[in-house]
Write a structure and sequence with these properties.
globular; mainly alpha; single chain
Length: 75
């Protein structure tokens, strides 16, 4: 688990399309910036960050399996 560098995420977001969902962008950011590919590791990182936790809560994602289901739908 890592701490999300929100400054780097904002920079990453400026190079994306404006219509992209911030949560999907955050997932892509974690994969590319931190080389995270384990759904469990991504979920643990998100749940331990206040802002990312709000994003999880908004989507009713309560565990790594829920994140995995979301990933298969969204990406």
């Amino acid at each position: 688990m890592v701490n999300i560098d929100w400054k780097e995420f904002k920079e990453y977001r400026t190079h994306s399309q404006k219509k992209d969902d911030n949560f999907v962008l955050l997932l892509n950011f974690l994969k590319s910036y931190y080389n995270m590919f384990s759904v469990t590791e991504i979920y643990e990182t998100l749940k331990n960050d206040d802002t990312a936790k709000m994003m999880l809560d908004k989507r009713d994602i309560i565990d790594a399996e829920g994140l995995e289901r979301y990933l298969f739908k969204a990406i």
